[in-house]
Amino acid sequence: MPLTPSVTAVARVAYLSSAVVVDTPSEFSSYWKSLPQSSLHATALISCTAPCSPALIRLLPHLPELSNRPIVVHVAARGDLADALILRAAVPYFIHSSNAQQAHDNALLASRLARIEGKAVVHVFHVGEMDDEVEEVSEEKVKPFLFAEKHIRTPSKAVGRAQSPILSRPQSPIRRPYSPSPVRPYSPTPKYANGHANGLVNGLANGHSRKGSDVDGRHSPRPMTPTTPMFTVPVDPTTAGLLEGYESAALATLALVRRSQRALTQHAHTDPHTVIFGFCRTSLGFGIDGVAYVDVSLLSPLPSSRILGAIRPSVRHVIVLEQVEKWTTKWTPFFLDIVNVLQHRDPEDRPSVRSAYLGDTSGLQSEDVATFLEAISTSKPSSSYTKILSHLFADRLEISNSPSLVPFQGELATNPEFSLGRIRGALEERAELIKAVQELLHDSKLPPETHSLFSRWILVKDDFMRSAQIEGEIISALQSGIDHPVAARISSLREHFRVKSRWIIGSDAWSHDLGASGLHHAIASGLNLNVLILDTLPYTTRNTLDPSRRKHDIGLYAMNHGDVYVASVAVYSSYAQVLQALIEADKFDGPSVVLAYLPYTADDTATLDLLKETKLAVDSGYWPLYRWDPSKEAAGKEPFSLDSDAVKNDLQAFLDRQNHLSQLVQLVTSLGETVKAERKKRAQQAYAELLSGIDAPPLLILYASDGGAAEKKAKRLAGRAQARRLSTTIATMDTMDMMPAQRRHSDWCKPLAKLKYSDLDAKLAVLGGERFAELGLGDDQDADGPDTGYKAWEPLIWKALGVESFEVHEAEPEPITNEHIKAASSYLRGTIAEGLEDTSTGALAASDTQLTKFHGIYQQDDRDIREEREAQGVEPAYAFMIRVRLPGGVCTPAQWLAMDQIADEHGSGNFKLTTRQTFQFHGIIKKHLKPSIQAINRVLLDTLAACGDERSLLCDPIIIQTACQVYAFAKGVSEHLMPRTTAYHEIWLDKKLVGGEALKDFEPLYGEFYLPRKFKIAVAVPPTNDVDVFANDVGFIAIVNESGELAGFNVTAGGGMGVTHGNKKTYPRTGSVLGFVTPEQGTIVAEKIMLVQRDNGNRADRKNARLNPPVFIRSNIDDFGWQTGEDGKHHFTCFIENGRVQDEPGRDFKTALREIAKIHKGEFRLTANQHLIISNITTADYLISRLDNLDFTGLRLSSSACVAFPTCGLAMAESERYLPLLIDKVEKICEENGLRNDSIVMRMTGCPNGCARPYVAEVAFVGKAPGTYLMLLGGGYYGQRLNKIYRESVTEPEILAILRPMIKRYALERLDGERFGDFVIRAGYISPTTEGKAWYEGMGGEGPYREIVA
């Protein structure tokens, strides 16, 4: 098929502006075949090209989901536009081009509009002729045009309503003066419309005459006077915003092509008596006196005020001329829109409105147009729904009680019970046909081609399109002869090869007696049939019926039956909903009842009356629009859909009003008592403060706290002091300037931070401090911890200050804990949404930061500049960390690219692969939180439960036969244990509950308190253990049977890494093996272990809240480099030091991985050691070879570190930034002793919380203060044994001094295959840790290597 200039121009624009082009077989296909598929352009736009055909109906159910995405659908039409017009109601923008040049320009406009506004655009244009001329824009100008900044007009004060005065030009809803252009710059020589109604040429018109007109419909205009009223067109904010977006794109297109793009373009007469609105290929350019032609380009959103402005006061007739021949109702949606716009005119000034369709325009003359203007014909509204059925289902439609059957079957043919019998018989015959075909297929002597043909039909027998394609081949085979006894029977039933859409059409008279009408029998039959019931009673005459004849609600009756599809529709309210309901009814396997509203009393009922009656009935709720699909309930979806916008809005307003009234009543009731109590409280407080200021001694309380315990005690002490009328000040130590003036700029304060408490006490005395109470000492190892010493010390303070006899009557408030915050959060909502709107700070409320952890978010600040900002008097540089939930660590290339883009657009330009096998972003400021999480969710990932109590589930990134089974198990466990709160979707994805507070969340597993501490799960597949399965609360160790299939898991429980420095009540623990479970039992076992922790864990101390193998595991590190799986596919494990994906000199990992993701067809698998596996590579791509750099020591390859400074708020020392520098020095010692390639597992964390799992490493360092670490030795190489504290405080020189002789001795004295962690135990450096409770036993080393521990 030759490409016309129109098609070529539109296809070229789609190609230049899109990242992806989706084509259905159409006029565009030959253009796409001539282009390389991989050379599309890097934009966010998707373009779809399709012909104007009935196949477009299949897009309809999907368009509402796609309407808010940057998509352009270019539809090429040849003649009738009816099929394309169906899409109009489902998309925000619907643009029409009437000629070739306009098609090119509107394609550009549509592409920019979709990209900038992020909404779907349908662009319909005509294929045109080969001699059409198009001036195309150059390629290099397209991309700047698409990405140019949007120009927004400044709105006027009139919001929500656009004035359209009759005597002057109208005002646009987007505040742009109307300025009609007589001729579009690119209009070609016009081809003219045919309007004859006498049969000489193809044309048809219908409509109605306005009241007061004469026989031919003409009317003398009302004289214009200075008091002629001004009318306004209501414009809702959504429509106004859409129109503003279109206007902005049109202005940008004008600047590019130098041709104006208008929603409406008026031609010819400026003071006409007749206006023709054209939605068709050509323009009527005849200079007929008194006739104006308006070319309509923008149909959605409809610029109502401009349409009203184009209909001048002199206009007596409006004709809507459309190239829509096979529309299924009396009036098209555009015609009804024109009628609706005219409702804003004075009734006495409204012109008549008629519709017409455009036929063959060849040889059309101005006389033909004049004749057409005199011709009017009508059609019956009663056929509206049957036409829709014919349009949707074409030749497979069967109306079982059609009047056309009466001549053949008698008067009973229209009886519903008789029709039901006909349908039952037809369905039984089709069942018999299926049985006969199956019998035929069991014949082993059947020729292979015949067997294949009938087998294909059996597979697609319920698919109307595919079964119809095979039908012709089957009938030909039957006619050629098939030697089988059932062949004749099959031939006699051949009419049932094609799936029929069977309908019974009745009236609302059936609703008076549901039993006698036969409707009950149809509903209860269980047959696959459809019933369409027309209700023609106008809303305004609903009360004139005989009250003794009660009308039943058929829809409610059918829904109560439980297995019936039910819909209530109104074609003159929502045409798209009618189509969707009829398609769903036909698809439903069972009885369907569609209630259709058509309020007419006679076939000549005026358009306006139909429209008014329908609007009144729908908006009042008399005729609600809804759909009920029981099949959705079985799939876990909501079966009921309310489609009446007015009813939905009224319901929401009612719920909002009820909520407000309830709050107001409660407020007014308690207002008097509250005010009275508050006044009394303030008076007492003011009096107490006055007394305190007169004679109370001042008290300054300073504290330094890492974990928060000292801070809580300091604040409690301050509260008790204030209750004793002391003038109290409380602050952190680093905020107070205690230096003498001459020493304020010295480095005296630096050693102060490292002083022990006794030295600090002495130093304060040296500075001149006067002691008024003895030093108090508390011991964490006492029965009640440091409170034993504190309780004895506090009374000394009150005695020294002379307030020991003061009676404190007011009870101290209970300290607010995480448990209180969670219980009061309304299932993790808190005030997060309000905090995101607060632009006065970059932080969230303290209580909300505890809740955002459950949403995968931690609040942090840049600790490198914290002191500098504090000195400047500004708040810390707050930012947030986001962690993605990625069970098993598997993601697609598209998801990797999205993570890469999020890091660049919202984060710090890099991202981290964490020890929880997922992505982590740092440096995201508050206003970027929501866009970041929405971007994550757009690629089908989320952050819910990535932090907080229930964490992401780890799974070995295996590449063996059982990979799919183990990964599916891991993902299933993760989904099962997910929190069920909807707070995440409400806050971050703007998914609002319809009922507001009327619907409450429910957590079936966690309850309102959730868990007492974080709960981690891991799945290991021997012989590797890179997930450190024993370090998790629950571990599953896969057991594979002899055939290589997954047999089940050994289950471990009770592992954990949380520790507090100096508190021997806290210790790490490896999990204990409980027993064996099958894959089916695993999910329930994980749930039950979690419930035990929920109900029995220590909620007072989260660090102490966790629970108290016959397999071969060889290591807990990754196997780097290339591997080949059992399926022949390749896998490459990359070394990414500490998981930081960024570009560095010589190691441009981020760029390289981005390029790989663009071409990779497999998966990316993240490891729990912070590395990456590029998996399922069919061919070894050269790009991956750039990452094939494993020239690192075994020590470095086995190392890992947490983030720590500058972002982690808990860090006490460096970790990720320091460990590579320390390894530089330690690996030199290894190389000196011939251990370059020997693996020694070394890990480092900045605090004792154990994010990098340091307590199961062979060598580990845990931060205590800047530059100072706890040193641990003796962990198991594959994570099976805890290490032990070797030195409580070491710096870098001490670390190197300890490791140098130890590594040398290891190189000389190790046994064959002996690991470093095992060697230091055998050599006597440290004793083994047999269980978590014994972790402190033997700390400090053994024998000559022992350090004296306080």
UniProtKB/TrEMBL annotation:
One of the GO BP terms on file: sulfate assimilation
Positions with biased composition (Low complexity): 168-178
SUPFAM superfamilies: Flavoproteins, Nitrite and sulphite reductase 4Fe-4S domain-like, Nitrite/Sulfite reductase N-terminal domain-like, Thiamin diphosphate-binding fold (THDP-binding), TK C-terminal domain-like
Gene3D superfamilies: 3.40.50.360, 3.40.50.970, Sulfite Reductase Hemoprotein, domain 1 (3.30.413.10), Sulfite Reductase Hemoprotein,Domain 2 (3.90.480.10)
GO molecular function term, any single one: metal ion binding
Catalysis performed (reactions): hydrogen sulfide + 3 NADP(+) + 3 H2O = sulfite + 3 NADPH + 4 H(+)
EC class of the enzyme, as a word: oxidoreductase
Composition bias, Pro residues: 179-188
UniProt entry tagged with the keyword Transit peptide: no
InterPro entries the UniProt entry points to: Flavoprotein-like_sf (IPR029039), NiRdtase/SiRdtase_haem-b_fer (IPR005117), Nit/Sulf_reduc_fer-like_dom_sf (IPR036136), NO2/SO3_Rdtase_4Fe4S_dom (IPR006067), NO2/SO3_Rdtase_4Fe4S_prot (IPR045169), NO2/SO3_Rdtase_4Fe4S_sf (IPR045854), NO2/SO3_Rdtase_FeS/sirohaem_BS (IPR006066), THDP-binding (IPR029061)
Domain Nitrite/Sulfite reductase ferredoxin-like, first and last residues per copy: 880-937, 1125-1181
Region (Disordered): 158-233
All copies of domain Nitrite/sulphite reductase 4Fe-4S, residue ranges: 975-1107
GO cellular component: sulfite reductase complex (NADPH)
Recorded metabolic or biological pathway in which this protein acts: Sulfur metabolism; hydrogen sulfide biosynthesis; hydrogen sulfide from sulfite (NADPH route): step 1/1
Entry's family note: Belongs to the nitrite and sulfite reductase 4Fe-4S domain family.
Protein name from the UniProt record: assimilatory sulfite reductase (NADPH)
